[in-house]
From TrEMBL:
Species whose genome carries this gene: Paenibacillus pini JCM 16418
GO-annotated cellular components: plasma membrane
Protein name: Multidrug export protein MepA
PANTHER family for this protein: SPORULATION PROTEIN YKVU
Subcellular location: Cell membrane
Amino acid sequence: MNQENVSLQSMESDFVAKVFIRYLIPSLIGMLMMSVNVVIDGIFVGHRLGALALAGINIASPVFSVFFAMSLWIGIGGATLFSQSIGAKAYKHAQRIFTHSLVLIFVLTLIIAAIAYIFRVPLAYGLGANSDTLPYVLDYMTVLITYGFIITIQSSLSLFVRNDGNPNLAMISMIVSAVLNIILNYVFLFPLHMGAQGSALATVAATLVGAIVLFPHFLRKDNSLKFVNPRFSWKLSWETLTIGFPSFISEVGLSVFTIGYNLALVAWAGTAGVAAFSVLNYAHSVMLMLFLGMGSAIQPLISYYRGAKLRLHELQTIRLAVITAFVTGVAVFIAGLIGANAIVSVFGEFTAEVRSLAVMGIRIFFIAYMFMGINFVMMTYFQATEQVRVAIYITFSREIILMVIFLFTLPYIMGTNGIWLSIPISEFLVTAAIFIYIRYKNKRENALR
């Protein structure tokens, strides 16, 4: 048996907690570096180009989210099927799944990018741009649309490398991308004066290098990932897209979140509100990456255990993940209460109005993190065990349905505080619904035994 398969087989023999930590730490480090990278982007843009450019890039950020969503949709769907096949010892089928997924993500990304490029101006206005922010939005967005396929390929490759028992290389790829992006952002924004376009080019170039870092894994003879002759399959495409759909909705939901908050804050607090939200959104990206890292850590494990029919290992893994997510969320909520002013100051000098809005927003919004991490890992669990309907319910409820309802009703009761509170209430209600569902399901299963 080759080296990488030995690493995968150790999932069955090692303690679950040991395997969980072995995947969790690299995933968290990699995602933390990506989130720090996003924050530093914001710091550079805020200090070099000002609050208006920061708001413009924030408005354009859903474009990145859509490409990332595409990579997660097909990447996690394919990686889940891949790990299940490895767990079931069906190695040839696993290699076919890998090849099929990479071809599928590349083709779909090109189609979406072509459509977005043609309609980029109305798209910018639809995302919330106005005459002040439009130039920054278009500069940043056009680069992302043109080179979006690099983002999706790098993200998908990273997922498969992690699922092939090599989480450390996936981590290294993210670290290299993050560090290089920081360096290029500084060079493009300050010495070269390239503006918002330079910030986007830095992201794309760094992502490309991160993808190159992953390629040695596929060239080694002792791994489970092999490129085979690509053969399109409607059945495999449907399975991949179905399983990965909750991840796609999760990322699309992030775009809905950004657009919804921008529109609501423009209406209730004007440009100052959008600038305040851009600060909060950069801080929010750190937590999203950490929770996404937790999900990325457990997905290969849950998928493999499901394929190997190791039910107890599944349950132990998800319990560890839920505890980790909750403790992390509580710690961040406390940090937000205490350090809101310091967080805002990191992103530059703002008017008193913007600072006041951002500080209050952080203190209220951070309540959500006590529940958001639990929702992330539970969604991943249901997705990896092919309980897709439940995973979709979690994602739609927390990021789209409930959020939109509260976002456009609470402000009439509580003003801008109601906008900040929309996500915390949504996350809490979904967490409560998950635990009610699990309790009901366990009671019904026990009654049938």
